[in-house]
Design a protein that fits this description.
- By secondary structure, the chain is an alpha/beta fold.
- The chain has one domain: Glutaredoxin (3-Layer(aba) Sandwich), CATH 3.40.30.
- It is built from 4 helices and 5 strands; from the N terminus they run βαβαβαββα.
- A 5-stranded mixed β-sheet has the order 1-3-2-4-5, covered by helices on one side.
- It is globular, with a radius of gyration of 12 Å.
- The chain starts with a strand and ends with a helix.
């Protein structure tokens, strides 16, 4: 099973913005109930799209700059990036089918 990449304020630019392949970042926190529901879905998608879409997570409590830059006020928030640009933002706990539908649009 593919590991979900942990990104930080320090490596976000290199790992996500400069990525050669599309990316999805799950902005989450350990205390967030809906984040715990989305977490396993994000892990499944990381395995399913390994090599096609980079799947990453960012802890909003440990990293303040990047979530502020993207105006994240609610979590979980999933942001999809392609060629360094935001192409979709999903806020809230959605089923796998919904998230996967958005990922497929980037391929």
């Amino acid at each position: 099973m593919a590991d979900v990449l942990e990104v930080t304020d320090g490596n976000f630019e290199d790992e996500i913005i400069k990525s050669d392949i599309p990316s999805m970042v799950d902005f989450w926190a350990a205390w967030c109930g809906p984040c715990k529901m989305v977490g396993p879905v994000v892990e499944e998608l990381a395995a399913q799209y390994e090599g096609k879409i980079k799947i990453a997570k960012m802890d909003v409590d440990a990293n303040r700059q990047t979530p502020a830059k993207f105006g994240i006020r609610n979590i979980p928030t999933l942001i999809l990036f392609k060629d360094g640009q935001v192409v979709q933002t999903i806020t809230g706990a959605y089923p796998k089918e919904h998230i996967e539908g958005e990922l497929k649009k980037m391929l």
